[in-house]
């Protein structure tokens, strides 16, 4: 099978993107003309099943109101596999990015506005307090059962708002109270908030906003005691600890491998699990959903591609070899550090692929979070001294790191949106970037951290200034290489930093759940627009590793965790206000006010500006853009609609 390069699309300027993101977050789309079209085309394998009487006709399967999608360049043809590469046992979000979070709404391919998805249309009323979603009449789950408003109520009332299952995520609250959902009719649901919530649609468009339509009531309700008097038998049979654990085993959640571990679970996705993502497996396979609810402009049911096949490799080097050897058809995640580009460029002809551009919306490739809520009181006191954090920043030679590790690409940067973005905040991005070891040593001297006989500074208790930085080597190999240079640079200041590499599952448990870390590395590719959690400004997310105990306090409404200082409290208050704002300019000003407070505190340490990266795509894989936004909140590449990609015929 030969493959041909698509012609792609251009990305708008970041300034236009950001402003449209905000206005799109409250824009009702009910005024857009609906396209009524009956599905007539389908994959040959499904046509054979219809002929045999084992599957309903395609027009019945997609319902009366399928979404009509215009492919990027051409109407596709059916068939073939799309091969992607997974890294290890915790790369579930790679599957999510390709299959897509099929929520009520989604971002358009350019990341400029929010468009209907599972919902056929929506309305926003009462100043951003009331959101009405009109579902697609006749839409079905992947097993052929109807998808209706009852599924949405099950997801919200029995799970999202059920504190016995899990705490209600902040994205479903406003004014300190959870939203309310009501069934208007079988295909209409209304969400009501206490206060205006301008960010809500953007939250729903993010990968973490799929909860209202994630679970099929007719299947997943059997794992709740409310619906099944015999749930204890299922708990014992499946060796679960309780009904909550049983539910996650069988129905999964947004960001856990179990989401892709049960072929029996019905979904709304374009492809459904055939070979599950479970321990010990060597590959994951998803096959087309015969009831998927999108069609192209000629009435052909999507997706075009039969299967997604994802072999599992244990390291990035194996993924690179897979690309070069022609065994991966689309790749971006894990393979895009600058160090990999030369070898991938050199082997394009051999691997029969070309590059596409992946453009971040802002931020940094690498952030170091000192744990300001450390369980050790001495390290906590040290880390909470701003002069200590400033000294570490001034003690970093970022240009050496960029030249040595990043092949000279990039520029020193703390974090935050780029200069041409309306949310740009200069102090956040550029303070304390200069390499000034003399000033750094003076600050450390001023803190009373005298050097011991071995040259390592000592804390007041006589213990050395020594801490570990947790890092996932396989997530981004640049991180470990950069940390090795930082380790040397900080050693010159008398600070003994040790690199602590670990597997991703253990990293999350240690840094995001148990709060057992000294410091940790992550990225901060953000622009702070609606739908993006600004976790380096406010501790509201598991990636806010400078303040996990503060995050727990915020998410629990003060019931757990640790009460934060006044500066954090004020930012959390302003953040809650910003989430509710329906005026884009008012929201922007409030976020910049938050940024100013955070910049004055200087809690996190960045390394370099997030640079445009690249992905690879086979030459005969059609309808793949030449450029696409690169962001977790966009869930690259899913808004480009991989269900419209197809293989060029011979």
Automatic annotation (TrEMBL):
<feature type="domain" description="Solute-binding protein family 5">
    <location>
        <begin position="113"/>
        <end position="524"/>
    </location>
</feature>
<dbReference type="InterPro" id="IPR023765">
    <property type="entry name" value="SBP_5_CS"/>
</dbReference>
<comment type="similarity">
    <text>Belongs to the bacterial solute-binding protein 5 family.</text>
</comment>
<protein>
    <submittedName>
        <fullName>ABC transporter substrate-binding protein</fullName>
    </submittedName>
</protein>
<dbReference type="InterPro" id="IPR000914">
    <property type="entry name" value="SBP_5_dom"/>
</dbReference>
<dbReference type="InterPro" id="IPR030678">
    <property type="entry name" value="Peptide/Ni-bd"/>
</dbReference>
<feature type="signal peptide">
    <location>
        <begin position="1"/>
        <end position="31"/>
    </location>
</feature>
<keyword id="KW-0732">Signal</keyword>
<dbReference type="InterPro" id="IPR039424">
    <property type="entry name" value="SBP_5"/>
</dbReference>
<dbReference type="Pfam" id="PF00496">
    <property type="entry name" value="SBP_bac_5"/>
</dbReference>
């Amino acid at each position: 099978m030969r493959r041909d390069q698509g012609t792609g699309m251009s990305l708008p300027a970041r300034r236009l993107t950001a402003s449209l993101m905000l206005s799109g977050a409250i824009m009702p789309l009910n005024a857009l003309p609906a396209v009524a079209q009956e599905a007539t085309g389908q994959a040959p394998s499904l046509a054979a099943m219809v002929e045999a009487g084992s599957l309903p006709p395609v027009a019945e399967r997609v319902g009366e109101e399928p979404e009509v999608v215009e492919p990027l360049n051409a109407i596709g043809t059916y068939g073939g596999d799309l091969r992607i590469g997974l890294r290890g046992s915790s790369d579930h979000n790679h599957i999510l990015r390709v299959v897509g979070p099929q929520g009520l709404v989604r971002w358009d391919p350019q990341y400029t506005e929010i468009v209907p998805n599972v919902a056929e249309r929506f309305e926003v009323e009462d100043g951003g307090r009331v959101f009405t979603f009109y579902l697609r009449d006749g839409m079905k789950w992947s097993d052929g059962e109807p998808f209706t408003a009852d599924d949405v109520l099950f997801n919200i009332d029995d799970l999202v708002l059920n504190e016995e299952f899990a705490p209600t995520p902040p994205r479903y609250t406003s004014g300190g109270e959870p939203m309310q959902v009501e069934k208007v009719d079988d295909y209409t649901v209304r969400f009501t908030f206490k206060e205006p919530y301008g960010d809500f649609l953007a939250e729903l468009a993010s990968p973490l906003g799929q909860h209202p339509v994630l679970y099929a009531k007719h299947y997943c309700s059997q794992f709740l005691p409310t619906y099944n008097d015999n749930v204890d038998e299922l708990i014992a049979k499946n060796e679960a600890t309780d009904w909550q654990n049983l539910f996650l085993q069988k129905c999964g959640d947004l960001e856990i491998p179990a989401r892709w571990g049960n072929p029996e679970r019905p979904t709304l996705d374009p492809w459904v699990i055939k070979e599950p993502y479970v321990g010990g497996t060597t590959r994951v396979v998803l096959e087309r959903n015969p009831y998927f609810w999108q069609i192209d402009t000629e009435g052909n049911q999507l997706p075009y591609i039969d299967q997604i096949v994802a072999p599992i490799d244990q390291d990035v080097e194996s993924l690179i070899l897979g690309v070069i050897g022609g065994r991966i058809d689309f790749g971006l995640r894990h393979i895009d550090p600058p160090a990999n580009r030369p070898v991938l460029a050199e082997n394009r002809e051999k691997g029969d692929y070309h590059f596409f551009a992946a453009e971040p919306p802002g931020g940094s490739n690498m952030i170091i979070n000192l744990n300001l809520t450390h369980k050790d009181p001495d390290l906590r006191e040290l880390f909470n001294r701003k002069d200590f954090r400033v000294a570490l920043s001034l003690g970093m030679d970022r240009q050496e790191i960029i030249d040595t590790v990043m092949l000279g690409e990039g520029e020193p940067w703390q974090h935050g949106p780029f200069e041409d973005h309306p949310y740009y905040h200069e102090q956040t991005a550029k303070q304390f970037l200069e390499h000034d070891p003399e000033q750094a040593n003076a600050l450390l001297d001023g803190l009373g951290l005298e050097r011991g006989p071995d040259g390592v500074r000592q804390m007041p208790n006589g213990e050395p200034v020594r801490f570990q930085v947790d890092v996932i080597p396989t997530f981004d190999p640049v991180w470990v290489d950069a940390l090795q240079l930082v380790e040397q640079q900080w050693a010159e200041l008398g600070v003994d930093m040790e690199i602590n590499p670990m597997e991703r599952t253990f990293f999350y448990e240690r840094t995001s759940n148990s709060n057992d870390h000294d410091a940790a590395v992550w990225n901060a590719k953000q622009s702070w627009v609606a739908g993006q959690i600004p976790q380096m400004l406010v501790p509201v997310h598991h990636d806010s590793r400078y303040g996990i105990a503060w995050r727990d306090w915020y998410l629990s409404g003060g019931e757990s965790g640790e009460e934060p200082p006044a500066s954090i409290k004020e930012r959390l208050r302003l953040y809650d206000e910003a989430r509710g704002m329906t005026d884009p300019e008012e929201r922007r000003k409030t976020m910049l006010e938050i940024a100013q407070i955070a910049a004055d505190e200087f809690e996190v340490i960045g390394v370099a500006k997030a640079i445009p990266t690249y992905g690879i795509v086979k030459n005969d894989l059609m309808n793949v853009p030449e450029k696409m936004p690169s962001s977790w909140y966009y869930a690259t590449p899913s808004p480009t609609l991989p269900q419209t990609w197809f293989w060029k015929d011979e």
